[in-house]
Write a structure and sequence with these properties.
alpha/beta, about 150 residues, single chain, six-stranded mixed β-sheet, 6 strands, 6 helices, Rossmann fold
Amino acid sequence: MHWLIDGHNLIGQMPNLQLDDPHDEDKLLQYLRQYRARTGHPITVVFDAGYSYRSAQTKKQGGITIQFAPSGRTADQILMRRMRRIKNPQAYMVVTSDRAVQQAAAQHGIRTLSSGEFAQQLLSSPQPDTDSQVDVHLSPDEVEEWLDLFNQSE
């Protein structure tokens, strides 16, 4: 299951996160990293540009793709564009409470989960067991990123 997440929409449903916190995205990413460690599912989270200037960027970190919308575009628009390109809709789940994004997902045969329901999953699921091993499958690109990070690539 690949999760496509409307980032700020999810933050708005997390009782311990606030959209006016300048570190709200980083705090949400901590929850998503823990979820990724437990499930092994790839995650793409898309954020609106927000109140402070942040350049449009996409980065990947351990199975999580983080994308910030460019100025003049919204996370909703980016999510809807991504959904149009999905070739295997049964392998995806969109997390949003935005009705337009939910409708677009339904038109493309992609299941949705409300941000509130997913927030409950993030907050109520047990923390990762540090003694157990999680079988996480990395793509060749992710392996290259880690090798580059540790300067061990050939």
